[in-house]
Design goal:
40% strand; elongated; Lipocalin; single chain; eight-stranded antiparallel barrel; alpha+beta
């Protein structure tokens, strides 16, 4: 009886080790989404003498701050009166995806990020400017997670970034823009428009938190889509299969004259 018991014990030990190994791999592969919950804070603007200028106390002017004078540069001169252009600062911005995947039956998070974002947002005191197109795009070929093999598979097979390098979003409508905005106050709104990935364009609506102070605009925007929405199949390899749902988050820092 001892030999069969030893064999059974050995098999159970191997199974236990295999389970532990799978759990360890799952923990190593599962990223913390670390999603932002508010628009980035803005350092108070200063005057030439180094003193803090208006808006930081919450008593700023109603609406988006006044348009800079023509002395502020050629870019400002080219804009219609009352329109301000906030240019996205890539080094301070980030695009992120979060996808749930099944690793041998265990759920993990796949998280990829990039700071390769460019674009502009055109605003007036009343909201989105009609005189110019507000949009941004993300260079999908620069997305990076903690797993190089995953990144290569997604870029080569799912996103096909050698053919479709960019995802682009064109803003068409802003809902919830406050009639009387107090600078450096975070407000919630929705931004609707057209998202294009792999030459497939779909109407989408982002949930956005925004704040503006002086020449700086910051925002965090969240959106949930699926691979199938844009003609893609969820990534799948022998040891891992992704779910269809994708969480997207864009954290933007944009400045006038950037």
């Amino acid at each position: 009886m001892k030999k069969p018991l030893l064999i059974v014990g050995g098999v159970l030990g191997v199974v236990a080790l295999a389970v532990v190994a799978i759990v360890v791999v799952q923990l190593l592969r599962s990223d913390d989404p670390n999603l932002a919950t508010e628009a980035p804070l803005i350092a108070a603007p200063t005057t030439a003498a180094g003193a803090t200028s208006g808006g930081s106390t919450g008593t700023g002017a109603t609406g988006v701050a006044p348009t800079p004078s023509s002395n502020d540069g050629a870019a400002a001169e080219a804009l219609p009166e009352g329109v301000r252009e906030f240019v996205i600062v890539s080094a301070e911005s980030e695009a992120k995806y979060v996808v749930r995947e099944s690793l041998r039956g265990l759920k993990t998070n796949a998280v990829g990020t990039t700071s390769a974002i460019d674009g502009s947002v055109f605003l007036t005191e009343g909201g989105l400017a009609d005189a110019a197109e507000s949009s941004f795009r993300v260079d999908l070929s620069t997305l990076k997670s903690d797993e190089g093999m995953r990144d290569n598979f997604i870029k080569q097979n799912t996103l096909q970034t050698s053919r479709f390098q960019f995802a682009e979003f064109v803003i068409e409508d802003v809902s919830g823009f406050p009639a009387g905005y107090v600078e450096d106050t975070e407000v919630e709104m929705t931004i609707s428009g057209t998202l294009t990935i792999r030459e497939v364009s779909k109407p989408v609506t982002w949930l956005v938190k925004v704040r503006q102070l002086g020449d700086t605009l910051t925002a965090v925007a969240d959106l949930t889509i699926t691979f199938q929405d844009f003609g893609m199949s969820p990534p799948s390899v022998p040891i891992a299969t992704a779910e269809d749902e994708i969480q997207l988050q864009i954290v933007l820092v944009a400045r006038e004259g950037a």
